[in-house]
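Tokenise the fold.
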Amino acid sequence: TTFTWAARAFGPRTGWMGGWGIIVADIIVMANLAQIAGSYGFQLVGHASLASSTLWTTIAGVVWIILMTFICYIGIEISAALQRVLLCVEIAMLVLFSVTALVKVYGSNAPGSSIHISGSWFNPFDVPSASALTAGILSAVFIYWGWDTAVSVNEETADKTRTPGRAAVISTVLLLLIYALVSTSAQAFAGVGDKGIGLANPDNSGDVLSGLGSAVFGSTGLGWFLSKLLIFMVLTSAAASTQTTILPTARTSFSMALHKAIPSHFGRVHPRFATPTWSTIAMGLVSIAFYVLLTRISSNVLSDSISSVGLGIAFYYGLTGFACFWYFRKVLRRSARDLWFKGILPLLGGIMLLYFFCYAAFDVYADPNYGHTSMTLPLVGKVGGVSVIGLAALALGAVLMLIQWALQGSWFRSPDVPVSAATEQEVASVG
């Protein structure tokens, strides 16, 4: 994970902050997943009034986190089996939704708001401003986030030297194809107007699929069943995302505990299920506390906290890219493959994410008019809430690191982060 690789490349403090980047991003996004699960759960059973109730969606979201934490606690095999089933349901429904929508757009049953697909939709140079492009790219980072789950559980994977890497690449490509298909078909079918089913309608912009389901499939007979199945698919995707959020966070804190970077309790393993006990339970409890706290404060704060997740992801993904380049810098001249895959591409990724992190945090997200909240800070003035939440979450990690350093500083004095024998031999052979 970022924790170990950043520690190997840049030292224990950078590694600790890399691990914190993973943890804090996952905790924040759990609030969003719980909110989705609570809302769509009530929509599925026809209780629209409960789906719009903050109290009841919060209760349902908390129950959801508890259930998903329990599944992750009792074993990764059960989690993996459930993921396979959920993935099949989701892909089948999304493809059916997309094909049906496109057939109607280019057939005789297109809604009045529909538009035909344009090449400009895929051209970044058609984005009207740098701030819009930056916000879009960080949204894309958030959308494609999660492939590293496969890598974080590599020690529990069959053929761990090849399977996790392949899974990470395949899952990213699959997500790219599915997302491109669904977003293109949804935009073509609904259009971008601010009335009716248009995607710019504020009543639909935060929840596109539940509004488009009945419009695409119909509201009676088989169409009603398929629109309900689409809602169920969103619910199952929340289950999948919750699991793939708990798993890497628990493994990251487990790794940090084994290296004495955080209290040793987080390194305990269940004797029967062979899963991190304290790390998994703590992830669930902290996620519940964070979710309940934000919903008690304001739904606007909850919304802006979700928007800030892109900063945490860009931070630790970018750090991983720099760590890869720096750690393998001595072997880059050995072959073109090493130069590109261990040098140029990770470095470019790190530079790009660093740029977008800084531009978003100190310009786009810092705009008081961006998002739903703003705060007045001493010596700074009025700042957008998204920027404040994202940067404060990362800064909290620095405070916790200093506390851990003072209480148990062995990791910071003499970090021991072993690598595989093959990797160690590879680096040592050139210098």
Remarks:
- Residues 2-420 form a domain with the Amino acid/polyamine transporter I fold (CATH 1.20.1740.10).
- The chain is about 70% helix and 0% strand.
- The chain has one domain: 2-420.
- The longest helix spans residues 221-258.
